Amino acid sequence: MARYLGPRAKKARRYNVALFGPCKALEKRPYPPGVHGEKSRRKQSDYAIALGEKQKLRLMYGLRERQFRRYFASSVRKRGVTGEVLLQLLEARLDNIVHRLGFATTRFGARQMITHGHVQVNGRRTMSPSFGTRPGDLVEVRDQPQSRKLALRNLEAMQAARIPDWLILEKEKLRGEVKRLPSKEEMRPIANEQLVVEFYS
């Protein structure tokens, strides 16, 4: 199972970014965890910085190391800038699309919705969170009372969140469409993808 089950606030403080959504601990203590976290001024090596950037992306999307390596290998084979293609592959994952559309408040919540059979793609139930969506794909909540109730509750909680321009949401029908792949500016990555490419290279 790819879910990270450890302390999330600790990881957010380690990398100084809200990896799993809003984090109060990060606001109260914006320094690394541990006894010497607040006083630590040790300079990081180039390798440590690149490793940290890779770990931020991996944890944010809830991937194991082997899965992340496969995504990187796929991005190398595709045409385009490797770092940007890698980000697009991660953003196109079904669990991320469900979260971006507002059907789930977190990516972990989106994974659970998918594995419990609440989501379908192009009219077919899909229970794989890692399913890679493409432009034109229709992602919708199944027409079941329990599924709709869950999605409506999450949509209400996510009202303040903005739906990306590369997705189309039909709120009444509880469905969305992948209009196109996002640009780097639209993705607003939390990590320097070029350092991730250098890390694996």
Automatic annotation (TrEMBL):
- One Pfam family it belongs to: S4
- Record's Gene Ontology CC terms? small ribosomal subunit
Keyword Lipoprotein found: no
GO process terms (BP): ribosomal small subunit biogenesis; translation
Q: Domain RNA-binding S4, which positions?
A: 92-156
The keyword RNA-binding appears for this protein: yes
Q: Which InterPro entries match?
A: Ribosomal_uS4, Ribosomal_uS4_bac-type, Ribosomal_uS4_CS, Ribosomal_uS4_N, S4_RNA-bd, S4_RNA-bd_sf
Q: Which GO terms describe its molecular function?
A: rRNA binding; structural constituent of ribosome
| Family of this protein | Belongs to the universal ribosomal protein uS4 family.
Its recorded name reads: Small ribosomal subunit protein uS4
Q: Please report the organism this UniProt entry assigns to the protein.
A: Methylacidimicrobium tartarophylax
The coding gene here is rpsD
